[in-house]
């Protein structure tokens, strides 16, 4: 039976086994983790963390960090892993104390794709009837920003998972690819569509038709990732958490509105998009945060947003 227990009593256990424990303890706000008003679901009988394939932590009171945790399979994305991922991120999205989320993997692999061993015997009827992969796109519907911190392989579904995030930061070791062609299938998690928006048709065709892996630098030059940071996974996660913390200090209403208008550019033509952006802009004049933000600028002080 699952029971809610205070996260202060569980967090140490969760973090102790995590590769981020050093990073987390080095954060000045580490002690505040114990005061964060969040809870984790735990099994009361076993006292084990609820999740088997991910680790959820709070490197900052306002930032949730989700680490994919199937190291032996290079974080291959199985259905149970995705169920956990969706649940953890949706929970963070609903939590008023969370301003932004970070998703990462390991030094060797962000994720090496959908779990090929799980898929290999799948039949069309089962995939179609049971809407295989349909829930995997849930995280592209989160309202709060999600930042991918990518080291190592981000292949197939792993590359698509990164592309579902709002911002991608890459360590120099990151390698992006859509190698599904080698398995005689197409990308299935949005790669063929999102890549065209991000890097254009010719480069997408090259990635999808040849399966070639693209280096972090090349992905950055192509505009697929925001930038390449630091050396190794710890650095890229640290940078992503810093960015997430900075975003969580803004007005959360404005952050969600910005995310909504940028995402609309994928779906609307220019005239509709400009109209949509203007309407959202007009709407923000009804918020306390807009009044506070502009008053603070005029009075030369820091704004105190109430997210209202
Ligand atoms: N699925 C299942 N197991 C995997 C996967 C995978 N995608 N990738 C790696 N593994 C396993 C290996 O089988 C191996 O397990 P074991 O030790 O039991 O044999 C273990 O991880 C380590 O892998 P390797 O020994 O192969 O490690 P290498 O360092 O030699 O090679 C590579 C690393 C190059 C990443 C290699 O493992 C590889 O090519 N992996 C497959 C990459 C791939 O083809 N990905 C695409 C999969 S299809 C897909 O993603 C469809 C997307 C569907 C939509 C998803 C929506 C989000």
From TrEMBL:
Pfam families for this protein: ECH_1 (PF00378)
Keyword annotations from UniProtKB, A to Z: Fatty acid metabolism, Lipid metabolism, Lyase
Keyword Lipid biosynthesis carried by entry: no
InterPro entries in the record: ClpP/crotonase-like_dom_sf, Enoyl-CoA_hyd/isom_CS, Enoyl-CoA_hydra/iso, Enoyl-CoA_hydra_C
A GO molecular function held by the record: enoyl-CoA hydratase activity
Lineage: superkingdom: Eukaryota
Biological process, per Gene Ontology: fatty acid beta-oxidation
Gene Ontology CC entries for this record: mitochondrion
Name this protein carries in UniProt: Probable enoyl-CoA hydratase, mitochondrial
């Amino acid at each position: 039976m699952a029971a809610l227990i205070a996260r202060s009593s569980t967090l140490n256990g969760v973090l102790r086994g995590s590769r981020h424990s050093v990073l987390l303890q080095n954060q000045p706000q580490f002690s505040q983790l114990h005061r964060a008003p969040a809870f984790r679901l735990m099994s009361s009988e076993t006292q084990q963390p609820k999740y088997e394939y991910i680790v959820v932590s709070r490197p900052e009171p306002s930032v949730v960090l989700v680490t994919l945790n199937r190291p032996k399979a290079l974080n291959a994305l199985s259905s149970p892993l995705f169920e956990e991922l969706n649940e953890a991120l949706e929970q963070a999205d609903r939590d008023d104390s969370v301003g932004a989320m970070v998703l990462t993997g390991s030094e060797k692999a962000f994720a090496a794709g959908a779990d090929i061993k799980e898929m290999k015997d799948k039949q069309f009827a089962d995939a179609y009837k049971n809407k295989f992969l349909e829930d995997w796109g849930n995280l592209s519907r989160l309202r709060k920003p999600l930042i991918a911190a990518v080291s190592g392989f981000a292949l197939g579904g792993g590359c698509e998972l990164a592309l579902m995030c709002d911002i991608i930061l890459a360590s120099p070791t990151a390698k992006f690819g859509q190698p599904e062609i080698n398995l005689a299938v197409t990308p299935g998690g949005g790669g063929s569509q999102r890549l065209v928006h991000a890097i254009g048709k010719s480069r997408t065709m090259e990635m999808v038709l040849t399966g070639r892996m693209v280096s972090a630098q090349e992905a950055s030059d192509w505009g697929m990732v925001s930038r390449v940071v630091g050396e190794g996974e710890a650095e890229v996660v640290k940078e992503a958490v810093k960015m997430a913390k900075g975003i969580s200090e803004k007005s959360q209403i404005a952050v969600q509105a910005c995310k909504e208008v940028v995402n609309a550019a994928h779906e609307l033509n220019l005239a509709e998009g400009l109209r949509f952006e203007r309407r959202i802009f007009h709407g923000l004049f009804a918020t306390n945060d807009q009044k506070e933000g502009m008053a603070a600028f005029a009075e030369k002080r820091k704004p105190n947003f109430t997210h209202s």
